[in-house]
Amino acid sequence: MTTTMTAPAPQLPTTAPAPAVRPEAPAGPPKLGRDALRRAQQETLDSPRMKYSVLAKMMFLPVDLVYGRKGSYTKFAMLEIIARVPYQAWERTGYWALHRHHGRSALALRVFDRIVEARADQDNEQWHLLIMQDLVQRNGVRQGRLLHGALPWLIAFFYYHVSWVLFLVRPERSYRLNAEFEDHAEHEYMSFVAEHPELESEDDPGTYAAEYGRYASVADLLRQIGHDERTHKLDSLAHVRAPRFHQVP
Fold this sequence. Notes:
- By secondary structure, the protein is mostly helical.
- It is 66% helix and 0% strand.
- The protein has a single domain (52-247), classed as Alternative oxidase (Ferritin).
- The protein is built from 9 helices and no strands.
- The radius of gyration is 24 Å and the shape is globular.
């Protein structure tokens, strides 16, 4: 009698394949504890400011003339309106580059990473603006439409187009200009806290605590914003040394 051999049935996988890992949005600048915030402030105060370019000084000068050389909540709110625009310009240019280089997957992925990073930085600067506007209102500062509305938007309009054009022609120059702006903001915040020791005993109102965190005092809240600006500065300086999009294989 002939015995017929039957091949064993193929084994089916017992578990589903792991889903592809999707890139996550950047977490943003780190949140520091009270002691780390004080150390960060002292580091800023002990470090010299960057050597600012003519373009950077052209933005700082009208703000200092109108709102004073000394820091204030009103001045910081104006600076935060301006601070968001280079990230918006980079995001816009990134989408243009993504469309242009969609056939080169490695380059397209790198461009998309820059877009996601720019959006995260915009969000961080937006929280700074909302926090400063809240502090302005809580301190009863009256704001006029011209000096507190039109002027900062005119400066932001100028800064946006300068950042956009530089990014198209010389991306490293655009990043360098932003690093100068962030360095200026970092020193302004940390110096303001040093000049106003009463802020140490003023409670953080926590209006945006769920989104930005709650701090032991307004002084620590401002120190955290100053440290955020340092993080943005260092990120921009890293991009100054990074290859351009079209140099990526």
